Amino acid sequence: MKHFSVALLGFGTVGSGVYSIVSENGAQIAHREGIALCVSRILVRDFDPEHEPNLHLAPRALFSTSFDEIVNDPAIDIVVECMGGIEPAKTFIIRALEAGKTVVTSNKEVMSKNWPAFEKAAKATGAGLYLEATVGGGIPIIRTILDSMQANNITRVMGIINGTTNYILTQMTESGQSFEDALKEAQALGYAEANPTADVEGYDAMYKLSILSSMSFHAHMPIEVIYREGITKLTKADFETAHLLNYRIKLLAIGKKEGNQIEVRVHPTMIPITHPLASVRGVFNAIFLTGHAVDDVMLYGRGAGCMPTASAVVSDIVYACHHDKQHKYMTFVNEESISSEIELVKDFHCIYCIRLHVADRPGTMANIAAAFAEQGVSLKSVIQLGENDGVSSRITFLTHAASEFGVNEALKKIEALACVNAVESMIRAEE
Amino acid sequence: MKHFSVALLGFGTVGSGVYSIVSENGAQIAHREGIALCVSRILVRDFDPEHEPNLHLAPRALFSTSFDEIVNDPAIDIVVECMGGIEPAKTFIIRALEAGKTVVTSNKEVMSKNWPAFEKAAKATGAGLYLEATVGGGIPIIRTILDSMQANNITRVMGIINGTTNYILTQMTESGQSFEDALKEAQALGYAEANPTADVEGYDAMYKLSILSSMSFHAHMPIEVIYREGITKLTKADFETAHLLNYRIKLLAIGKKEGNQIEVRVHPTMIPITHPLASVRGVFNAIFLTGHAVDDVMLYGRGAGCMPTASAVVSDIVYACHHDKQHKYMTFVNEESISSEIELVKDFHCIYCIRLHVADRPGTMANIAAAFAEQGVSLKSVIQLGENDGVSSRITFLTHAASEFGVNEALKKIEALACVNAVESMIRAEE
After folding, report:
1. Predicted structure pTM score
2. Does B300 sit within 8 Å of A299, measured CB to CB?
3. Torsion on CA atoms B333, B336, B337, B343, rounded to nearest 10
């Protein structure tokens, strides 16, 4: 039986979940995996229960406020970082790797912003670096990409990877709530933070997409190259439009690769109600992969929460023990900027759903249609609904796949038309 | 760079897919994984293109009709069995393992019927034994159970693991086809065999459930202990009943574990339309796992077909190369019969949907309800619809979770009631 000693950095939701699994299922893991795990140190800020509400969950002797004590302890094999945020997580991860300790992290922000530096430090000492818990909570998406898709050229990764926004969008879809009301409800239920920016503006999904797309496409996709748009501007009218067209609105993280061209984007997206991602409701996450051999594969589960995330962390710990001193590092060039071999696509090519408020008079449709045609934008569906005022209409256009630059040019001209009161919304769609 | 030499046994759909991936993506796999793969021998029955229609897909020099030549060749590291059926697959797998060669197989029937013997032979020489491709085609369900769920006690595995029957059931649901018509269509499209018994009677799903539940519950569940019921008796009326209750009918493979009690069963099952498995349409497969830490996880994808299954086989080959001479065998007692530590549940406890054809007269409902009550079967929903004849009705009962033995006792009494013309159907439901 091999013995491994684990230190936890942080004892919040994830850290306490990891401690509970190792304590309660340690004997079973030892029996099944031939590995004896022991949490021998837990780093906390201080011993004030106001800052550290989980102190009562583990023996006092395990806690320490000194990272030095942990990093200098030769008996510690694996350091689990579940503090969140950038500092001191970043410094601690680098120092642990430099000390030759394998690091397991659940922190997508620090990981996506410092991956090249972490990987460099890990390679220098042969330490392992595991990050299953950074994306999709308990969903084994990273292991699937690395250990089950080796035969594939992955051409697309597309997912619902933020539970907070998916809860809000589900409420807006199913209960007709406004964004503000749905957000308040999510906050009351503990699904959204007091400051919800990281979730609702798409930053969290962007961090995760950077990791997912880098692994899927074997090329580092830093967060700076990801197009990002949050869900704060969505209105009830957008959900009515989606309903009318048999679509759902989801905050999708999308990566596509064709040859050396890659596009990566996070934005509200309409998908047909028959698409498997459309039925992912509430705080659940799901990630769709397309490989040239496997075709479409989807993984679904709880994208956050104490035990699901801890499940992924413990899975990484066990995996790390089995692969001690044999860590497989990324084989792509992991530099801070995007590789020069990759051509970043900025002119997306997708379906656009555009809603206009127009004056109800002869020539309106002809002028608008001409502006689209001029830019080569072909229309798939057009729905015009007259308003009660008798003088204006709302027109919804669903395009065929089109150049985003072309669509934007067309919309500039359309907005300037005398017959157009407003371009109310433009939402991208995927099939 | 480590070099590995692979022999394929069988060159049908799966074998030719594996050859194509290794040929076309070999350089990429070498770059990313540090492993050079080479298919150096392909076993075929003979050189008659009528028996072996894929002969033109590989150089003639690779083909052989002699298994001896392959098993005696010390240069061959890995033997991929993708012949299907029991013999000669069984003999070849045992002989390859006895010769110390790692075996990768996509053959669920031979695997589920001979797992203990295969594992014993593998352990004796230290050979690897990999079977990702036996369940769910390209869906990485085996790897997920083994390498991502180590922190969990898996309490439930539930899935759509036969694409043929799922196609037929989707057609019966969406187009109102009869079983016979939907089967004919599936045969015309190549989704069902000329002799469809293995699929429509649930044998194929049973083989896969034996593998899935054994791995999930860490206890060998031989096929003999699995309750099996096919889809051939389902009628249009059953689908109308399901529609009325907002359910879908799927052929589910279900395993549940509570303490040392395990139940394993394959049968038509009603699930609510909001359940993620309900929207798995056509030939797609999906498997739902419930772990005490991770909660619900679902994996979805193509459960069969040349390239998806080959994707799983190649993933096993690469994994085997990385774990050469370090294979992790099952840690449960892998004997032919079920372990004496396990208590096999025969009295299932689930929801039952029962449809009766009854005489429309006073006392009918009272008598039937009394028979259920006597057995402690509590009713959740009752829908009575009078027939056009004015003298008879159809009544559909949806029970709360109940003992199957109790339900069967109640149905015996109900069937004997003068007011009951027929017990038309009894379908189990899951939530």
Report:
1. 0.94
2. yes
3. 40
